[in-house]
Write a structure and sequence with these properties.
This protein has 358 residues and is mainly beta. It has 4 helices and 24 strands. It is 13% helix and 39% strand. The relative contact order is 0.16.
Length: 358
């Protein structure tokens, strides 16, 4: 019996060592998490949100409306192996707009009312009003594939801007955890010119590049870097054109999607709040390898915590909305304002939240 126990222990240690070798992390020292106070004082305003069901699908990562008030969103199944673009009319009827066969993240209409979308299977695509699909881009000019294309926006001049979280692997929950733990710059920020059909890399390597939005004056764009708890600014014009700077830093949670309001300020959605245990091990490469090798139930978990902030054009937090226990909105990664309401989604949320603004 003692020999059997020793074999089991040895096998377990060997297995953990093998799993830890799969992670090659960089050390990262996060700043101290700021307190929830002032304009981020905790509240439970999001508890009043209604739910728009998705007929069993998950992950409304981006939300878009057409001129008739129909809602569009990309969704996936439980293991991310399949997906659709859904169309939901104002009365709540759900139909399959496009069988993408994979999760679809960023969505935006161009001037011809083609639906420009980011498919995890096809890359950057255009779907015309007849539902005919054209693939615009699958890789950058350096042949790096768009395996987790993420945030998307279109400028007034027709230029398409989008992020790609990774060129290494398609998305799974396990791979998402690996990206967070390794803290390596992957993917990037890109532009696509519809006239020349050229893809151009604007930023090579980002820290979980996520939501993208263009400013009201079209002079810069913002991109969320989820694992660095920040949003960065990329200048499109002026004396700083092509330069990058931090727009807002050291946020209290994992920022995800970002969208613009009519006044030029931004809604920023969060997947959850920061995890103290994760922040504490980020500077210790060996500890991260050990934690990554542990069974999933022993690893740091994302708390159910709905959080949205309104950020000014100057990068100052104006107000915050919360569901502190995640009762109605366990995450609030996607946020889009339409007709006096916020429509709220997330990576694994099984519905869209609808919150009435004051």
């Amino acid at each position: 019996m003692k020999k059997v126990k020793m074999i089991i222990v040895a096998s377990t240690i060997a297995m953990l060592m093998l799993k830890s070798c799969a992670l090659k992390p960089l050390a990262y020292q996060p700043k101290t998490t700021p307190a929830f106070e002032g304009t981020t004082q905790l509240n439970d305003k999001l508890l009043s949100s209604e739910k728009i069901q998705l007929e069993g699908w998950l992950g409304p990562e981006d939300i878009l409306f057409d001129r008739m008030g129909n809602l569009y969103t990309g969704v996936h199944n439980a293991d991310f192996s399949d997906g659709r673009i859904l169309k939901i009319d104002p009365s709540g009827n759900v139909e399959e707009f496009y069988n993408s066969g994979s999760w679809v993240a960023g969505l935006h209409f161009d001037k011809e009312q083609n639906l420009i979308a980011l498919s995890h299977k096809q890359g950057l695509i255009s779907i015309n009003p007849l539902k005919e699909v054209q693939v615009l881009g699958t890789k950058d000019e350096n042949m790096k594939p768009f395996l987790i294309p993420n945030g998307l926006d279109i400028a007034d001049n027709g230029m398409i801007y989008f992020s790609n979280t990774s060129e290494i692997s398609s998305y799974t929950i396990k791979y998402g955890r690996k990206i967070i733990m390794e803290m390596k710059p992957l993917g990037g920020l890109y532009s696509y010119n519809p006239e020349t059909e050229e893809v151009k890399t604007l930023i090579d390597g980002t820290y979980f590049g996520n939501g993208v939005v263009i400013s009201k004056d079209q002079d810069y764009l913002l991109m969320v870097e989820t694992t660095k708890y920040r949003v960065i600014k990329y200048w499109l014009s002026g004396t700083k054109a092509g330069q990058t700077e931090i727009f807002i830093d050291n946020l209290q949670g994992f920022p995800n999607g970002i969208s613009i309001r009519e006044d030029g300020s931004y809604w920023l959605g969060f997947s959850t709040k920061r995890n103290e245990a994760l922040d504490n091990i980020h500077s210790k490469k060996g500890m991260k390898k050990l934690v990554y090798s542990l069974p999933e139930f022993m690893q740091p978990k994302a708390e159910t915590f709905g959080m949205i902030i309104n950020v000014s054009e100057e990068g100052e937090i104006i107000e915050s909305l919360f569901d502190t226990n995640g009762t109605v909105l366990p995450e609030a990664g996607a946020v889009k304002e339409f007709n006096g309401h916020l429509y709220i989604g997330g990576d694994v949320l099984p519905y869209i939240g609808k919150y009435k603004l004051d």
